[in-house]
Amino acid sequence: MGYPRKLTRRFKAFDNFAISFTIINIISGIFSSFGFGMNAGGPRILVFGWIAVAAMVLFVGASMAEIASAYPTSGALYFSAGKLAKRHKGAWSWYTGWLNFVGQVGGTAATGYAAATFIQAFLVMQWPSYHATAQQTVLITAVILLLQALANTYTVQLVALVNRISVWWLLVGMVVIVVALIAVPDHHQSASVVTQFTNNTGFSNGIYAALLGLLVTSWTFTGFDGSFHMSEETVQATVNAPKGIMRSIGYSAVTGLILMLALVFAIGDYAAQASASAPPVQILIDALGMTTAKLLLLIVIGSMLFCGLANMTSNTRQIFAFSRDGAMPGSRWWHSVSSRTRTPVKAVWLAAACSLVLVVPGWWSHTAFTAIVSVNVVGLYLAYAVPIYLRLRHDDFQQGPWNLGRWGKPVAAVAVVWIVASSVLFMLPQASPINATSFNYAPIALVAVLVIATVWWFATARRRFQGPVSYGSPDEVAAMDLI
């Protein structure tokens, strides 16, 4: 790909799959958004929306996997955008890289904040006298980011080991939660519950509410570009990286549906649970009792912590690669690699610091925090869309060992249409009446990011950044390899 090696290939096929599977994280995704789905469409959208959206995400993943096989680099999305663009390579690469960066930083911050919120919920359950505050949530998030940065500072073998553990934590945890919800409660909903439709969004249009409910699954299925970003540390990356993307989406789709059904059938007092501060936690308490609910909540918290760690790992590799091509302020710092651990240590701490900056407004206002991190999903999916769209326009795309053959373009077309449609959904109002608290700040956050990137591009970047840099011919680059 034109770069001397600075990272070691220690990720096996399972490790590559593990990082995306952990970032998607069905337990974290479903438990953090289930309450929204109960009010925006109800069981009908939670179940059938999961199936429909997961199918669409498979199209996105397949197109990304094909590109990952052709361009297996840490730069991933922005690198492939620069290579696939026929003109204005630097601009395509620039915008893709910054959307990816902002989306990943937002994802790391949001996951850490969600974990802190559930930790506080556990503390309240354990000690009723404990009073959770916004300030304490921010402080706990800061500690979480610190610990995750420390873990990412050490060798890639440690990260791989933690991700392997996280896969089994997710799978075993999912089985434990599902079995408990099946075996313990005296009463379950009938099969007809999956057809129940509920609209508590404040909007009178049921179709609009149902479309909003699809966001539950879309929120969960993000971050599978992690396998792509770890390409330079994965053995046989042209095959194992695309397989990691597809397996993580496929396995998450199946296991997530099982968990979703278990929660839906365990619902008791629908109105009371849907209006609770944490609906899925209330379902556990009502169905299993306080003691069992607390034990299962520890599984959920652990899943969120694993998710944040994997998010930061992926974020770090994107920063490393983007800086290697001179696209970030202080690029010389951020693409340096520790001679002892062979990891981009400075990029790790930049990722942690940027995530903490996004969390700080939560000290004063949860709405302010939501406004900043809301660009997470939109930023990521738009970054996914750019190289897929450019691949669609590229008549001479050189497929890698893992490819879709003649189905490549049709699959890419479906993927682009779905990304555009889901991105529009993410930017629409999600609750009525619309006020300062309920307003969806995602479009404002996205426009702010694009304006800053555009001003920066025309001011200085277009003269110095021309897209992915080539350090020489394959033989010349091999002679430069630093490991």
TrEMBL record:
Keyword set includes Membrane: yes
One Pfam family this sequence matches: AA_permease_2
Protein name according to UniProt: Amino acid permease
Mitochondrion found in the keyword field: no
Membrane topology: Multi-pass membrane protein
Species this protein is from: Streptomyces aureus
PROSITE patterns recorded: AMINO_ACID_PERMEASE_1
Protein's cellular compartments: Membrane
Gene3D superfamilies: Amino acid/polyamine transporter I (1.20.1740.10)
Keywords: Membrane, Transmembrane, Transmembrane helix, Transport
Tree of life domain: Bacteria
